[in-house]
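Hey,
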Amino acid sequence: MATRLPPIFTLLCVIFVSVLLGSAAKSKSSTGDSVLVILEPEKRAEYSIFLNGLEAKGYSVTLRAPKDEQPLLIEDGLPNFSHVAFFASDTKNFAKDITPQSLVQLLSLGTNLILTLGPKQNLLTSLAPEFSLLLPPPATPLVSFFPERADSPSVIPINAKSSSTPNDTFSVLTPGVGSVWFSGTPFALTPNPLLFPILRAPAESFAADLSDASGLVSDALVDASEKGGEGLWAGSSLAVVAGFQTLIGGGTGHGLDAGPGEDKQARVVWVGGPSLFSDEFANKKVVEKVKEERGLKVVENPSGNKQAALDIAGWAFQERGVLRIDSVSHRKVNQTGTPETYTTNDEIVYTVKISSYNAFSGKWVPYSDIKDLQLEFTMLDPHVRTALPAVRGQAGTYSTTFRAPDRHGVFRFVINHKRKGFTHLLYTTTVPVVPPRHDGYPRFLSAAWPYYAGAISTSVGFLVFCALYLAGEAKEDKRSKKE
């Protein structure tokens, strides 16, 4: 007869399983779960879908009005929040602790930011050029008259699939996300290696102020090209969402040479307008015309704003694209321990283990998908630069073998991997390379055989000469005696 478990034990098991499944479904950041949203409290209902989505993923969301003094961004030199989102794009005056300098300080302390621009000039528009963003003249939103729709020309559906990204850029948006509604200010990106576009403007769009135009496309284009004397801001060269990845520790690097302390990298996402995160655009349908045998059919599809907003926040809050170096080792070929010094022309084996953060499990897992990892062996300039390929059968392990240069001095192993969308990997280790000891050279050098042959031939010639000379004197002595 089967034994029946006590009710209290069954209840505890149910609670444990529920907590376990609930924690597994949540996706958290690798740097912290506290989020401060700068937003007028009465406007919270306009962004409830996005904010509730963050809370469902396990974030602790705190609201603060732009002019409130509490809670502070930085207190006693430490940030109070892991992430800060600015949705008060229409506000011109902020509290005294919200300044461009304080935002830059937050980045240096490892706090991630989401910054949304607005039509009015404020501290964010003055801060944008510091991140290599070029803004159009004030009050010139992005407009497009295509595709034909009943909405205002400044409310634009952007096909995320057609937003081209470089091959080395991490894909922030989930593949297959629907069209994203956008209304706001576009910006151009300068060739900064730390900056990359997440969502580009449509090719047929341009920045213009339609309030002064007669309503015709031609008039709007002329007004846009003449405004500010800066030409026409148009096309897919503009972006509406861009990501910025800071350097490690302000560019100082890390590894055995960096000393104690945790490496901190922060991310910034610039968005042309807060409406991308709004409930209005999340619930707004996208009307598309689909070709069929009988003609065009009008189809209403849900927008991709809800998913795109969470994807953008997920990258900004370091849920995805987060890499780290777990361990590094170097040794001589056919040896196991790490030597204190290397000798010129030694065969060296260098191995590194890299992992990636999994937001769903909250754990670091081995990562073997880096195809272009490189190692440099430098002394002022790189003497050796070689690929670090992944080792088959060993997840997250990269290894290479190379020969030390025929030059002694203080060298460094350097891994400096920077790819857009991923956290930067920088690791340096200093090792001395010494010449061989007096008994470390081979007894005979193959390259010196010409000198050996010359010395031997000279010696042999001298001995032959001596023998012939002495033999000649002996013969002369015998002749003199006979005479």
